[in-house]
Amino acid sequence: MANSNIQLHPPSKKKTLWAWTIGTFFGAGLLKPGPGTYGSIAAVLLWFIAAHIFPVTSLSLTIGTIIAAIVVTLIGIPAATIVARESGREDPGHVVIDEVAGQLIALIAIPADWRHAALSLLLFRLFDILKPPPIRQLERLPEGTGIMLDDVAAGILALIVAQLAHLFF
Q: What are the YutG/PgpA domain coordinates in residue numbering (predicted)?
């Protein structure tokens, strides 16, 4: 699934609006170059804005981020499946809801300042692009599950490294 150029079937003329809206994260996945980075940046910006607009404690921000990551993942799996099928591609680059989910996971328990948010973004993008084992193997899962879970794993790895960096530095 790493290769978004693998075409399974001819693209469908049908586009399921809700799935394309969610799958491209409201169009962020249609931006070039690097749609995945745009999806991650959109997630960080929304998280950062929410953390500063709403009166939240560190605990409530962590809980809210966990809930958001779970909801995005659960909605993202069927949305990514539909968009992949309608695109005729195994893992289309314009599907970025997986980056949103992974990035949200990487932001769990991160202090709400720009330095920590930037570190989280950089770590997530690094692990999402490099896909160290066992992340790459998760791409082999079928359809939207594989599209989503490799980024979930990259988010978990970024979260662990960010927490260790926060602990030691």
A: 22-166
3-class SS of residue 95: coil
Between the alpha carbon of residue 47 and those of residues 2, 54, 110, 121, the distances in Å are: 27, 11, 11, 12
Beta strands in 50-89 (DSSP E): none
**From the CB of residue 56, how many other CB atoms can be counted at a distance below 10 Å?**
16
pTM score: 0.91
Query: For 64-121, what is each residue's pLDDT tens digit?
Result: 999 999 999 999 999 999 999 999 999 999 999 999 999 999 999 999 999 999 999 9
Q: Are 152 and 102 in contact (CB under 8 A)?
A: yes
Q: Please answer whether residues 23 and 82 qualify as being in contact, where contact means their C-beta atoms are separated by less than 8 angstroms.
A: yes
Looking at every residue in the chain, the average pLDDT score rounds to 93
Identify the DSSP state of 44.
H
